[in-house]
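Please produce the structure of this protein holding magnesium ion.
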Amino acid sequence: MSGAEKDAEAEAAAEVGTAAETAAERVLEVEGLGVTFGTDTGDVPAVCDIALHVQPGETLALVGESGSGKSTVALAALGLLPGNARVSGRITVGGTQVVGTGEAELARLRGRTASMVFQEPATALDPLTRVGAQIAEVIRNHRPLSRAEAAREAVELLRRVGIPEPERRASAFPFQLSGGQRQRVVIAMAIANSPDLLIADEPTTALDVTVQAEILDLLRGLAADYGTGVLLVTHNMGVVADFADRVAVMLRGEIVETGPVEQVLLRPSHEYTQRLLAAVPRLALSGEDAPEREGASVVELRDVSVRFGRGPSAVQALDGVTLDVRPGETVGLVGESGSGKSTAARVALGLIPPDAGTVSLFGTDLGRTRGRRRRALLSGVGVVFQDPVASLDARMSVAECVAEPLRMHRRGMSSADRRARVAEVLELVRLPKELAARGPRELSGGQRQRVSLARSLVLEPRLLVADEPTSALDVSVQRTVLEVIAELQRELGFACLFVSHDLAVVQEFAQRVVVMRAGRVEEQGPTMSTLLRPRSDYTRRLIAAVPVPDPVVQRRRRAQERTEATA
Amino acid sequence: MSAVLQSTTPTAEPVANYRLSLRRFTRNKLAVAGLVVVVVFLLFCFVGPLLYSTDQTHTDLHQVNLGPSGAHWLGTDAVGHDEVGRLMFGGQVSLLVGLAAGVLATVIGTLWGATAGYVGGWADAVMMRVVDAGIAIPALFILLVVSAITTPDTLGLILVLGLVSWLVPSRLVRAETLTLKSRDYVLTLRATGGTHGRAIARHILPNSVSTIVVAATFQVADAILLVAYVSYLGLGVQPPKTDWGGMLSAGLTAAYSGRWWLIVPPGLAIILVVCAFNAIGDGLRDAFDVRGRG
Amino acid sequence: METLLYLLRRALQALVVILIVTVVVFCLLHALPGGPARGILGPQATAQQIAAFNHEQGLDRSLPVQYVYYLRTLLHGDLGTSYTLNEGVSQLIGQRLPKTLVLTVLSALVGLLLAIPLGMWQAVRRNKPADYVITTLSFVAYSTPVYFLGLILVLVFTQTLHWFPSQAPQGDTLAQVFADPVALVLPVVTGAASMVAVFSRYMRAATLENLSEDYVRTARAGGSRQGAILFRHVFRNSLTPVIAMLGYYVPVLFGGALVVEQLFNYPGMGLLFWSAAQSSDYPVLLGCVLVISVATVVGTLLADVVQRVVDPRVKAGRT
Amino acid sequence: ALLLAGCSGSTGSSSASKDSINYALPANFTPNWILPIGTAAHLNTNNSSISHTLWEPLVAYDGSTGKIGWNKAGSIATAADFAADNKSVKITLGDRHWSDGKPITSQDVKFWFDLIKANKKQWAGYSPGQAPDNWTSLKADDDRHVTLTFDKAYNPQWMLANELQYIIPLPKHAWDQGGDPVKTWTYLNNAAKNIGGYASNPLWKTISGPYGVKSFSTAGKVVLAANKKYDGGEKPGIPTVNLLPFTTTDAEKNALRSGSVDYGYIEATDLDQKESFTARGYEVKPWSGWAITYMPYNFNNPSMGPVFKQLYARQAIQRSIDQTTIAKVVFSGTAVPGYGPIPTGQASAFVSQTQKDNPYPFSTSAARALLTSHGWSEQSGVMTCTRPGSGASQCGDGVAKGTKFQMQVLSQSGSAVTDNMMSAIQSSLAKTGIKFSIKTAPVNSVLSQTPQCTASQSICKWQLSFFGTAGSWYFPAFPTGDALFQSKGGSNFGNYSDAKVDQLISASTTSSSNQAIQDYSASLAKDLPVIWLPEPDYQISVMKKGLGGFAQDSLANFHPAQWKWTS
Ligand SMILES: Nc1ncnc2c1ncn2[C@@H]1O[C@H](COP(=O)(O)OP(=O)(O)OP(=O)(O)O)[C@@H](O)[C@H]1O
Ligand SMILES: Nc1ncnc2c1ncn2[C@@H]1O[C@H](COP(=O)(O)OP(=O)(O)OP(=O)(O)O)[C@@H](O)[C@H]1O
Ligand SMILES: [Mg+2]
Ligand SMILES: [Mg+2]
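Below is the modeled complex.
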């Protein structure tokens, strides 16, 4: 549909009357929305009595705790909820009622009047269809273009979302693109028919900060150029501050606060919003380096290289990495996605044998120890892996998971003692006792991650390797957990290798920081001096890309960047 | 003939909650019907002879090829055995061999596949080439040779059928083990000093249980079918023993003589029981599969 | 280049597999008691004739010598000569294999052409009556012994309804076989039945899995209709695991061919194999097993290659 | 109806015109040899039937005239005059010609003789001490007369029936390779190894019989066309003869039912459907064979050999087999009970009264009495030797105390009738207290697993063997037992040995009266060298009505030239 036609339609709508006028002004209007999921274990009421609206050219940010129903609202708006959802209330998109409308009619709406960008770029695209074709498909769903014309337009869209060499990339398969590029493709699909409404459900969480910033810029441009209304779901207050006009805060299926972004972020009225904002880690602008730690390294990587695969498709995941962690110290490992952080952590744990270089744990070469001695050595290690779903055996209860290290290394312990110890550790990570008997599948992502953490701490380790231990947590819970770790560390004096992509968190909790890029150590040193006065461009860019959860500051920063760029 | 109705991808995350699985299983009507059929047939074959006793060891040449009547509910066969009794008697062999061979194949396959998958590297490569070779050699050939070397009694038949059909489960279990062993919880265990034994016993085996159980049901179905096939080729159990496949193929000669009672009962028995086990396997897979929700 | 290397590696593995097969088969054959001579020459044969036969066929030499000898002739592309059929094994297989291939390939094609849409349709209508009906039917089709199914089809369609002839085409050449498509119907249907059952189940499972993938939601969000999503996206994504299974299905197809050939008087490879087994015709037996093994290995190899073509991720080693 | 016509056309419709006939070859047999000389592997019954229709034998001694005798119409010789001392024979050839017009002369007979003499080891008919060993010379008296001299006097009937019947005049002018019989043999055999050349190679065009090869497919279908130049007594009645191969009897029966076979067969179990075949225009005519059926005992078997050596034990076994009922019920009357070494399906002058009278009628109680009176008693259902020793009421030489009377048969697989017979035997033996277990294998495998052996050989584990689904042993016209029951006889699998029997056997071949062979018949009927079993018909033929004018040859050969469409 051309712009002219659209205008005509808007005019037609305007003629009907004032009531219709407001509806037409609001590209999305939600009233009294309730969604309940029917599951094996009974009904799960996800959201109830939600009311919100989005006007053309406006961005509404939907924030709130994990599991509060943000995605549910977003999906409901396009009628994309799974089959087990029961919806009540009213949703109007571009004048069309969504609830109760048939698939065929909704298909006419989707991708043209309103479209959507999903969180996970890895799986959002059909792996077997070239990206150009996938974009063209959306175009041809709504406009009578020939195949060739649609293909040409797809290339144009790829150019618009900032993909280099769009002609060539159009014929790439999704797996041949990076995560950021894939997300751009999804956005290209979403804007292919210049929709009135764009719903973006955590469009940048899977991406690292530099890419995140670019994507947000892109969305902002769209809203400005085409008057597209945006519903943005995110947990990142920095993004909200950067981008939103208005904010709605959700808690347990309800909207607890709405208002203009300055008001909500700077003068929150609801208690939950206040708590949320207080917990947001902020990059400090000044500070002192912690004193150098003494003592022999607990873990030391020297000139470690790791290569995955063979032949031309091989990946050099680590390339001459040298780092060490001293007793009582936390070393933050940062860097963009795919830079080799997790790999370095795994090498340190002896899970990946290095192709070159040495790894020593507690002063012993891990490559040369075997059997009982090795096990004894490893019993002093606690591990939290990045993916909370994969980290726990779904067959075991929470208590069993946490008790497993005790069973392995404290054979003599009585079961009563063991139970007591497990309860103690669960308490430490702020997990309620009732959870002990549940299976990991019955927990939220954040709870699972804390179970993992409890397991790693149960033996009072001498070394804790934590790979993004808080990625699935709300900022408030994240803060609590990180404080627990810091406190325990002060108490027990263990060393900690802390992998994170969140520079603010690292700045707050690590004494030293190692910045990685493409398998190499870009720079390392004491936290404050490294992050406040970075020596490499790369680090500087990483820091610049971290958004600040303050709309005023963020706007100023952006203006500054722009002038720097033009200068 | 050793095809399987098995999913190409091993079932994903198992569910901790068995009650939930049971509920999901019972919701699958076909699976429940399958279970009922299997139980009914087990009762018929193993308890039935106590209620309806017939002479299945001696022939009676004066009572051959009789149609159904009050004395012989399903008539008699070409050497005078009562057909109902024969069905029970043959069913004992078919069910026993099918179940035992299916379980045996699954056990061998599980051990082989789990070892190959867990040990990895060279051992895996060699073990999997052996499996490939096994798949490439027609089972029929092995059956022919083995039956020429030894008399296939019930035990022999179980062993032979078990030995020709462990390949598919072994591939399934290997695939499962491969993914499981790189799961973070197994890595965590190893990174914190757990032994291989513990990893296998606590994580890998319990988590592949659904794959194994599902494989076993399909394997049993296949084994029953294979027994029938083997009997058709004249390699089955020897008289006075019989099995459904043997009865069916013997009955087929009477297809044009209108003696349906020699064909339909054993044919139906095979189809029903094999269907039943397939349905059970299907139900189990749904029950264990977390993606199958809703 | 990468593909070439991959092919080379796979071919090498395949060779190893085939070598294992020959060793196993050879050993098994010679573990058979009695040796073939008496069986082939019949009860009337004299001791002299048996000795002459064993000498002529090299059966009086030690097993490893025989194996090496066999391998050597094999390398020259010679599979030996049948003991009973007065022909070279290569010629025999050359005559019989194409006929069996017609049968198996047609069965496989018909089977897949039916199974794939059926499976997809079932997935779309999951847990609806249609799904239950087809599921039940495919269980029944799978559970019916091939010989039983064949007999029923013959009884109904040739003896009662007289729709089809009771024999497969009797011509020797493929042209003659294809000249009589009506006669091919029953054998192909018999061969395809279990194929439809198995692969419709595979396809149903694969389709269900793909329908729950995120990209389906993306496509829906882009305004694509259910039909378009099914055919443009889900279909291709579901096909790859099904293709992977095809290679392993080769021996099953051959096994089925044996019964079909017996029932429909169609002397192909299955029957050749069977009668060679009946008459202890070692060279033919070895030749047949070898062909089936090679077919299986090549089948799996092809399935892999096709998968690489269909699914670009496989090539990049990221599945 | 249209469809139907299409179908029957495809399967090779039955010869509506009376110019051809479709004959069903035995299941799973494909013709693959036409040369009248060759190895045993090649010259099986069906191959030689085909070869005999191409090259007429010198003396056709068979059952094609209804009873076993010399069929002069189908022979090249018109007379065979034995010398008074029975040490030579003078044979007169008819005035006959090869298909290329050249006369058939005594040189063609000599050609065959020289070939066989020089290559006897490879020849199918060879058995040491017999033809050609016992033929000292063959002399061509003139073009139409030859004289064959023997090493001693022979029973003329035996000589005609069992030895002279081998001789087949061959076209020397077309086949001879420079007079070297060894080279010629090799040349001819090599040429015969090319089945593809059977219809085209000029070698096979020079024939003397009523038919020539029109086509010969490697898949087994053979088309014979009448030899227009044939000048013998058996003029072909039907111009084209199609010999059709079948994979299984079921396939053959299906073809019969659809009418595409004129002359086929069914199994004994199908006799109850006789009406359905007559309704389709067929006649069912059993084809009885000149054969006996039996199960050899392995007298050298380490465990059961000593038991088998006891006549009372063999009697007990024989008396436990109800041949009459088996023949009537299991074989549906298509078998006759057999009580001795002479076939009883046809009337003959060879069978003794003793054999006809059945010396050991069925009675399991009598059988039990035999065993119990010889020191056996039943223990848990199986007779066990309790009184070892060689006394009259003891088990006998070599039978150890505790020996159980249990034996296993290796029986031919693939026939329902055989399976049923074995079950019946098993059942009645069980009533006597003899445990009889059955193992089945393809007939070839049975034969190779039940060879002559000595007790120490591992292959000597076999106890009983059965390979007689279609009759165990087909005799030439004169049923001597030299190969079967003579000590060291080539096919005396169980190593039966009895000096008196040896004597009777050699008397039967040399003496010119039938008394010798009757004595032999009586003696073996009583001594039970094997378990005698019912003699089944060779096949139960099913012929289109109107096909007739011939008798089915009990020697199991078929003679297409005799087939006629009479209506
Ligand atoms: N398909 C489903 N079946 C059952 N329950 C569901 C389903 N999808 C979501 N839920 C439940 O609905 C609630 C809201 O989920 P939703 O995904 O909307 O949360 P969210 O606010 O997007 O959380 P997050 O920030 O973690 O993405 C959660 O409690 C979740 O467990
Ligand atoms: N098992 C593996 N096989 C092949 N390549 C791998 C493997 N593990 C990691 N890689 C590759 O190695 C590189 C480094 O990966 P790594 O997981 O260490 O990154 P990361 O810094 O932890 O990223 P993220 O922030 O996304 O977790 C990436 O390019 C990744 O694709
Ligand atoms: Mg969400
Ligand atoms: Mg990582």
